[in-house]
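Predict structure. Chain length: 130.
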Amino acid sequence: MLGKWLRTTSRTADSADGPAPAPPPEPTDDELATVLALLVVSDHDVRMIMERTGFPVDLAVAAVNELGRRNVVSDAGGDFFTTTQGYCPGPCRRGGHELRGQEIVITPPRFEWECAHCRDTEPMAPPGAA
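Prediction complete.
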């Protein structure tokens, strides 16, 4: 489980009457897609995600955890994360690293992705379509 590696702590007053820790932020679909786009082309750790997105640590961690909960990303080892979908499902069948610098299309809520070229020539079937 990703949460095992991505726990954060909130600092509170030492007294029992101190403020309760703030709940972790809930990332938006746009924030989730931003993190996923980074992970499609290269494995990243939370620090790298924060540097490339400008997200604070709590949001970067929450986004990776949410994508992990949805089985969209997984632990690649060494605190790095990768996508579970390894290649474009369109006719090009290119892996994410081959798409560096090119546009990809990410479709919530399942956060499947495909390259823009394949999307423009042969769109992905809607979920549940046979």
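Summary: The radius of gyration is 17 Å.
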